[in-house]
Design a protein that fits this description.
Largest sheet of chain B: 6 strands, mixed
Number of helices of chain A: 13
Order of helices and strands of chain B: EEEHEEHEHHHEHEHEE
Strand content of chain B: 25-35%
Shape of chain A: elongated
Order of helices and strands of chain A: HHEHHEEHEEHEEEHEHEHHHHH
Low-confidence stretches of chain A: 70-80
Distance between the termini of chain A: 25 Å
Low-confidence stretches of chain B: none
Largest sheet of chain A: 6 strands, mixed, barrel
Mean pLDDT of chain A: 84
Mean pLDDT of chain B: 92
Strand content of chain A: 15-25%
Shape of chain B: globular
Radius of gyration of chain A: 34 Å
Distance between the termini of chain B: 27 Å
Number of strands of chain A: 10
Largest interface: A-B, 26 and 28 residues
Oligomer: heterodimer
Strand order of the largest sheet of chain B: 6-7-8-3-9-10
Structural class of chain B: alpha/beta
Number of helices of chain B: 7
Chain lengths: 401, 228
């Protein structure tokens, strides 16, 4: 029998039982599109988070006080004390040629008041470099002025919400407000679009780091953000930071240096795992579709027993009969999978439309895998019914009408 | 052309053995026309199935031309069936989703004949069987007589050496039954070996050679000469 005839015979059989074929196509399509849409969601979430982290600053190295590993005994007994990170440390870090920006950070909350209105607001003390490192934007005025880190200039930058709550409709720029027991002049308003993980810029007051230290009565920094010129330079800068701080801290390595890459990689892995998980769950529906195909093909074989008997009486070898039914199953899953591909593509497109923030798109491996699995299950589950058809006893088969 | 020697066919139904054919001896020459008659359960259909190589005898030898059919494997038996034997059934066994024309074409499709040649032969047969107007209709839209004509055209299109008909008129009224027998006899006149299994003595008596089966045995095998 010619290949073309085999295919058109199988197509004819599929057309001959429209409801059955339509249901099978639906089952297969749902399976494939479920895999695609769910992985598209997972991928979208992953890319979203990775993108958010990138917006925290590229080529960023974060210096935290204290060691992440234990020193092997109670710190006090071994004589190892954790020294604070200071603004001098931050200044020292700036000396490496690959370091472009350094932003020391002090955080805390303090009562902020203007006239009769008072609010408890998160305060960040930092340097002028913070704006660039965090990719924030100014709505009005300027960010903190560039100056030595230990100069406590009485200026501040406020977020939109703080500005609205304190000043209402009056212009905030140039006003003097009170933070704690000190007075600061508002020099700038932060734009609202710059949102980044963990910080709500709308509800924030930023002051020079030395002013914040005075406000909170502390010498120590919460952390230091170091921006490196190129990502290749990061390992060198990391070593430089460790060496510099060790020198300044009497030979003790009492800091932790975290690179943006490490954080990103962790999140990347988490979301990758998440995507695999949902893909796995969706794959179950593919397997169900495969089993459905087997069921329907089995029913089809018994429905068409007389036809099989006729084919045998017409001298069709068992192999050809098996091939006919297998082709039918393969075509069924091929069409179902293609349909699912279209639905899946459309679904991810619609998702991307509904959640523009989420760059939802099924990764190529999910598309390839779902198509592969669909065809494989279709053919695999088609083998048994096809064999059953080929093994039918022609005399018995022909007794059926 | 055909020699059956000591053919037995035993079915096992539950724990009981049913001897459908016991020791059948039969020789059929090329171009012969014979009818097989007998009461229900006498083994007529079983004999026909064995002649058509749809069924294997439990014991005995079956020679077709110079081939020992019983020793052939399934694939070779299928090939022999495809090339030499045509079937006509009581219930027509047309494929419901195919048109009359496509049903007639089916054996050629299965045999891998090229489409151009297929079309030519099908057109010829459709015309010869008076089915031109009904060629594009599905079996459900055809009358019983038309269905059986389609079935006979399908059996004959491969130009087999032997045509086996199992109660070909069993589901037809007298008129269309007569037409069907006429067509079959016409095919026989063109050289086809024709074997008809029937209940109907009127049809049974049309052939020169009449075989009567009783209890799985050939009870009588008479050749009627033209004079009587």
């Amino acid at each position: 029998m010619r290949l073309r005839d085999i295919v058109s015979f199988a197509l004819g059989a599929l057309r001959g039982y429209r409801t059955r074929t339509a249901l099978m196509l639906l089952a297969m399509a749902i399976g494939v599109s479920a895999v695609m849409i769910l992985t598209a969601l997972g991928e979208g979430a992953r890319r979203f988070v990775v993108g958010e982290f990138a917006s925290l600053g590229t080529n960023l190295v974060i210096v935290l006080p204290g060691r992440s590993e234990s020193a092997g005994g109670p710190a006090g007994l071994v004589g190892e004390t954790t020294r604070d990170l200071t603004t001098d440390d931050a200044t020292a870090l700036k000396r490496h040629p690959a370091v472009t920006r350094v932003a020391p950070i002090v955080v805390g909350t303090a009562p902020v008041s203007w006239g009769p209105r008072e609010r408890e607001v998160p305060i960040i003390g930092s340097s002028t470099d913070l704006l660039t490192i965090r990719h924030w934007k100014m709505a009005k005025g300027d960010f903190l002025p560039a100056s030595d880190l230990d100069r406590a200039t009485p200026v501040c930058v406020v977020g939109a919400k703080v500005s609205k709550e304190l000043f209402g409709t009056e212009p905030a720029l140039g006003q003097w407000l009170r933070i704690g027991d000190r007075r600061f002049r508002v020099v700038g308003l932060l734009a609202t679009e710059g949102r980044s993980i963990g910080v709500d810029v709308e509800e924030l007051v930023i002051v020079p780091v030395a002013s914040a230290q005075a406000l909170m009565n502390t010498e120590s920094l919460f952390r230091i953000l170091v921006e490196v010129s190129t990502s290749e330079a990061i390992p060198k800068v990391k070593a430089h930071i460790l060496a510099t701080i060790r020198d300044r801290h009497q030979g003790e390595e009492d800091i932790t240096v975290v690179t943006q890459d490490a954080v990103l990689e962790t999140f990347d892995r988490i979301f990758q795992a998440l995507t695999y998980t949902v893909a796995g769950i969706a794959a179950i529906s593919l397997a169900v579709a495969g089993i459905l195909i087997m069921n329907v093909m089995l029913v089809s074989v018994s429905q068409r027993t007389a036809e099989v008997g006729l084919l045998k009486a017409l001298g069709t070898p068992s192999k050809v009969i098996q091939g006919l039914f297998l082709t039918e199953a393969a075509l069924l899953s091929l069409f179902g999978a293609s349909l699912g591909l279209i639905i899946g593509e459309f679904g991810s497109w619609a998702l991307a439309r509904i959640y523009p923030l989420l760059p939802a798109a099924a990764p190529w491996w999910a598309v390839a895998a779902s198509l592969g699995v669909a065809l494989l299950t279709g053919v695999l589950f088609g083998v048994m019914p096809a064999r059953r058809a080929a093994k039918l006893d022609p005399v018995q088969a022909l007794l059926r009408r | 052309m055909i020699r059956l020697e000591g053919i037995q066919r035993i079915f096992t139904v539950g724990d009981q053995e049913v001897r459908a054919l016991r020791d059948v001896e039969l020789t059929i020459g090329a171009g012969e026309y014979l009818t097989i008659m007998g009461p229900s359960g006498s083994g007529k259909s079983t004999l026909l199935n064995i002649l058509g190589i749809l069924d294997r005898p439990t014991s005995g030898r079956y020679r077709f031309d110079d081939l020992d059919v019983t020793s052939l494997n399934d694939e070779d038996q299928a090939r022999l069936r495809r090339r030499k034997i045509g079937f006509v059934f009581q219930f027509f066994h047309l494929v419901p989703r195919l048109t009359a024309e496509e049903n007639i074409e089916l054996p050629l499709v299965l045999a891998g004949v090229a489409p151009a040649e297929r079309r030519q032969r099908v057109t010829k047969f459709v015309r010869a069987f008076g089915l031109t107007e009904r060629a594009a209709h599905r079996p459900e839209e055809l009358s019983g007589g038309q269905r059986q004509r389609v079935a006979i055209a399908r059996a004959a299109i491969t130009e087999p050496a032997m045509l086996l008909a199992d109660e070909p008129t069993g589901n037809l009224d007298r008129t269309s039954g007569g037409e069907v027998i006429d067509i079959l006899e016409d095919l026989h006149r063109r050289g086809l070996t024709l074997v008809i299994v029937t209940h109907d003595p009127e049809i049974g008596d049309r052939a020169k050679r009449r075989i009567r089966m009783v209890d799985g045995n050939v009870d009588s095998d008479r050749v009627i000469s033209d004079e009587t």
